[in-house]
Amino acid sequence: MPLSPPALQRRRLHVRHVTYEGFARADGLFDIEARLVDAKDDDLTLLSGVRPAGEPVHDMSVRVTIDRALTIRALEAHTDRMPYPGDCDRIHPDYERLVGANLVIGFRQRLHQLMGGLRGCTHVTELLGYLPTAAVQTLAGLREREDEGPDKPFQLDRCHALDTEGEAVRRYYPKWHRRSAVVSGSS
Predict the structure, then answer these.
(1) How many domains does the chain have?
(2) Are residues 169 and 119 in the same domain?
(3) Are residues 107 and 124 in the same domain?
(4) Nearest to 152 by CA among 137, 162, 166, 161
(5) How does DSSP assign 77-137, residue by residue?
(6) pLDDT-derived band of residue 33, with 50, 70 and 90 as boundaries?
(7) In this structure, are residues 39 and 56 in contact, taking their beta carbons and an 8 Å threshold?
(8) According to the model, what pLDDT value does residue 77 have?
(9) Which of 7, 81, 114, 124 sits most deeply, having the most CB atoms within 10 A of its CB?
(10) Largest CA distance in the chain
(11) Average pLDDT over residues 88-94
(12) Which domain holds residue 168?
């Protein structure tokens, strides 16, 4: 079901497009490419000049190469449009410090420790923050059956619907379902 209609008349001021694409490479690795584009519906006057309506204020991209274990093997960041040309994009090489990080083992914490605040670009860091779920979705379906094998499927216990004590896990992943602990209260 879509969102309800707006209660009042309104005028759009800003649009942000974010895309993630996952690719299988010929060498057995995977590339995840992400792009963020911000544009205004009215001309925007910046200290660095005027951005006409519809022209990007930000246009940033990252490519992260990962292996099947979701470990970053290579990372490239690039900015085509930015508010402060020559300044915003100087930080891109620093993002290579994330090579070797695993996208599903403490990645967001490591990202913000290494590249948060003054250590990085807010928008590039935001793009990288959503890479774990984009990478998992890229690799989903490459396994024959996610519920077979000795290892608990990755997605279990990572959202409310897939709580291993919940109904969805009982129904779709019975091998991994566990009964909730009954806590007895004392009077």
Answers:
(1) 2
(2) no
(3) yes
(4) 162
(5) EEEEE-SSTTTGGGGGGGGGGGTT-BTTSSHHHHHHHHHSGGGS-HHHHHHHHTHHHHHHH
(6) very high
(7) yes
(8) 96
(9) 124
(10) 70
(11) 91
(12) 146-181
Distance CA 44, CA 99 (A): 36
Do 18 and 46 reside in the same domain of the chain? yes
Residue 135 shares a structural domain with residue 59: yes
Q: Is residue 187 part of a domain?
A: no
d(C-alpha 56, C-alpha 42), whole Å: 11
Q: Report d(CA 143, CA 28) in Å as an integer.
A: 14
More confident residue, 124 or 186: 124
Give 82's Cβ-side CA count (13 Å radius). 18
In one-letter notation, the amino acid at residue 15 is V
What Cα–Cα distance (Å) separates residue 105 from each residue in 39, 75, 92, 101? 34, 17, 23, 8
Q: Which residues pair with 77 in a beta bridge?
A: 62
Q: Are strands 14-24 and 49-51 parallel, antiparallel or unpaired?
A: unpaired
